[in-house]
């Protein structure tokens, strides 16, 4: 055990920033786990934000835990030591709560291992009052928690700022584990899987979810309320999700990450975030700059994180303020239709020499299918604007296997890239330096809670053929690199995204054998089935606030290649139901979103 403790202390010694090391025993002890390694977990903004949030409450101690690296795991086996928390090197099983933060479905595979190493029964039905309450939150909980429903006591469906205080309050009020679980079923935003029975049809397809013990039929997604300010929604509290612990042992290597906004008004039909994080909200530039100033003593690198960075109505004020703080600024991928000369100038001044944009496809037609209202000519003009600022390294995110895709759409990716490359060469060559265009190929993976949730993923061999075709087409195109997502990984993502409770058998088999590829052979057909629009879906136990009728209508518009516009009355559109429908186009998103009363109330902030 001593070697493990020394390793953990060495990791802690390399951290800097606003660090929370509170003693245990103050009231409620929470072990916050990321179901992957320290390197990956500490790169995750959501994980760091929840750690910051829990430790902000008086009487709460939160410590971190991760799936151990192979060398630590071997030492744990040799010394017969359970999984320990990082801060105090205490067994995870001694905490009141094990909170698991899951952002990506593929990390579902590590949940049984995390529990097993903690010496906590993997199945919730085998736990008793002496075991920690196993809670899951994070983006994956918005989408489809069913593949891990048998492993989790409570799923937090919604945003942590709202759910964390409610969870703490109910835990303090409860007299037993059973009492706690029953109380949580009466709280909005908490899904207790043991109180739901999954039923299946004779052909093996999912039939329905039947609640028991007074649990609601669907669990409504809770969102942090906002107030309306100058036509956009602003978070009204002071909590800003940020990576306030910095370390070189992450993907970001000492870069301070800060969420500047949440949600997107565009409604791209493949994108779960655009629907699950309704309504779009921002953090005020004043509060963001105040938080950035606190961290400036620890780093000069900052990353702005958002579904759509350019949607922030105060983005220029924010960039000007960060420039005065002498930060090197980087941003997550930019929304094409909102890239401005002023934004690019600000990024160049802060030494950002590479940008990422997402045309998604090279075909204007297919872009209408996915509800991205841009033409190739407009994309080339935007690329030219980027190159004219001296930014010659450009990443293009492209998707293959989208619904209705034809061979001509693949050729269009090559043609669009060549047009962009030609403009880069034309502008860069006189300056004596030519950059690189990286084409990032990603297979379309259907996501729950989107209009494409009924679609199948294309078979692995078909995706491989398309990747091979495009790779060959780009092989002799100078200054262009291709990076392709593994087609097998895409199949795994689709299985875990679209799975019902029976997929837990696949996860357990993977944990037993250590080989998900082998375990997946029996499940390979599961995500390849197109679901009828009237079929009950396992993830519909989670209610994101939009009706199934809306999703169907958007699916039908996609098949008809019709664009749904964002609401022009409010910028960005907060979909709060306050604008006059007579003032917006008939095909505007605000017209199509038949919102539940609770979502309208949360969006309006009243």
Structural class: alpha/beta
Number of strands: 23
Rough outline: globular
What is the mean predicted local confidence, pLDDT?
Answer: 89
Structure explained in plain terms:
The protein is α/β, with parallel strands linked by helices and 606 residues long. It has three domains: 2-158 and 160-220, no CATH class; 223-346 and 545-606, Transcription Regulator spoIIAA; 353-531, 2-Layer Sandwich (Transcription Regulator spoIIAA), CATH 3.30.750. The chain has a six-stranded mixed beta sheet with strand order 3-2-4-5-6-7. The chain starts with a helix and ends with a helix.
Secondary-structure map with pairings?
Elements: H1 2-13, E1 16-17, E2 28-34, H2 38-41, H3 45-55, E3 60-66, H4 70-79, E4 97-101, H5 111-117, E5 133-137, H6 139-143, E6 154-156, H7 160-173, H8 177-185, E7 190-191, E8 196-200, E9 206-211, E10 219-220, E11 226-229, E12 232-235, E13 245-246, E14 256-259, E15 261-262, H9 272-276, E16 281-282, H10 285-295, E17 301-305, H11 315-324, E18 328-331, H12 341-349, E19 354-360, H13 364-369, H14 376-388, E20 393-400, H15 407-428, E21 437-443, H16 460-474, E22 480-484, H17 487-498, H18 503-513, H19 516-519, E23 542-543, H20 548-559, H21 589-592, H22 597-604
Parallel strand pairs: 2-3, 2-4, 4-5, 5-6, 10-23, 14-17, 17-18, 19-20, 20-21, 21-22
Antiparallel strand pairs: 1-13, 6-7, 8-9, 11-12, 15-16
């Amino acid at each position: 055990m001593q070697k493990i403790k020394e390793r953990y202390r060495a990791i802690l010694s390399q951290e800097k920033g606003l660090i929370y090391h509170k003693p245990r025993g103050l009231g409620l002890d929470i072990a916050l786990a990321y179901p992957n390694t320290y390197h990956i977990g500490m790169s995750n903004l959501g994980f760091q934000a929840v750690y910051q949030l829990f430790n902000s409450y008086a009487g709460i101690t939160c410590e971190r835990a991760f799936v151990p690296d192979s060398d630590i795991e071997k030492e744990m086996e040799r010394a017969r030591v359970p999984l320990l928390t990082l801060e105090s090197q205490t067994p995870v099983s001694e905490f009141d709560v094990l909170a698991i933060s899951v952002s990506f479905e593929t990390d579902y595979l590590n949940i049984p291992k995390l529990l097993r190493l903690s010496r906590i029964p993997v199945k919730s039905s085998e736990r008793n009052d002496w075991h920690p309450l196993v809670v899951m939150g994070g983006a994956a909980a918005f989408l489809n928690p069913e593949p891990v429903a048998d492993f989790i006591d409570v799923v937090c469906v919604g945003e942590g700022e709202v759910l964390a205080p409610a969870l703490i309050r109910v835990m303090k009020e409860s007299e037993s584990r059973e009492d706690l679980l029953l109380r949580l079923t009466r709280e909005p935003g908490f899904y207790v899987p043991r109180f739901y029975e999954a039923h299946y049809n004779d052909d093996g397809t999912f039939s329905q979810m039947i609640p028991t013990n007074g649990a609601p039929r669907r669990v409504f997604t809770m969102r942090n309320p906002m107030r309306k300010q100058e036509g956009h929604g602003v978070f009204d509290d002071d909590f800003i999700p940020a990576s306030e612990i910095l370390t070189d042992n992450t993907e970001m290597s000492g870069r301070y990450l800060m969420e500047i906004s949440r949600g997107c008004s565009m409604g791209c039909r493949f994108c779960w975030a655009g629907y699950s994080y309704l309504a779009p909200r921002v953090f005020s530039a004043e509060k963001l700059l105040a938080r950035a100033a606190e961290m400036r003593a620890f780093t000069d690198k900052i990353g702005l994180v958002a579904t759509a960075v350019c949607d922030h109505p105060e983005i220029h004020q924010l960039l000007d303020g960060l420039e005065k703080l002498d930060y090197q600024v980087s941003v997550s991928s930019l929304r094409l239709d909102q890239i401005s000369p002023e934004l690019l100038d600000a990024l160049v001044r802060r030494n950002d020499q590479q940008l990422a944009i997402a045309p998604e496809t090279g075909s204007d037609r297919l872009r209408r299918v996915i509800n991205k209202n841009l033409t190739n000519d407009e994309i080339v003009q935007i690329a030219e604007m980027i190159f004219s600022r001296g930014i010659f390294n450009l990443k293009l995110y492209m998707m293959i296997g989208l619904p209705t895709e034809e061979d001509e759409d693949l050729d269009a990716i090559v043609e669009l890239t060549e047009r962009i490359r030609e403009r880069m060469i034309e502008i860069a060559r006189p300056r004596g330096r030519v950059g690189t265009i990286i084409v990032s190929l990603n297979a379309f993976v259907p996501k729950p809670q989107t209009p494409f949730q009924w679609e199948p993923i294309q078979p692995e061999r078909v995706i491989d053929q398309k990747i091979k075709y495009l790779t060959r087409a780009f092989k002799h195109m100078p200054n262009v690199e291709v990076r392709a997502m593994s087609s097998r990984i895409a199949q795994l993502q689709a299985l875990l995204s679209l799975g019902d409770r029976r997929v837990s058998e696949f996860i357990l088999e993977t944990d037993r054998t250590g080989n998900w590829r082998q375990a997946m052979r029996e499940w390979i057909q599961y995500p390849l089935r197109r679901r009828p629009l009237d079929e009950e879906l396992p993830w519909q136990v989670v209610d994101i606030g939009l009706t199934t009728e809306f999703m169907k209508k958007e699916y039908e518009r996609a098949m008809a290649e019709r664009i749904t516009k964002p609401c022009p009355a409010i910028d960005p559109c907060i979909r709060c139901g306050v604008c006059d429908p007579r003032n917006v186009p008939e095909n505007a998103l605000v017209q199509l979103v038949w919102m539940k009363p609770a979502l309208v109330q949360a969006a309006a902030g009243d």
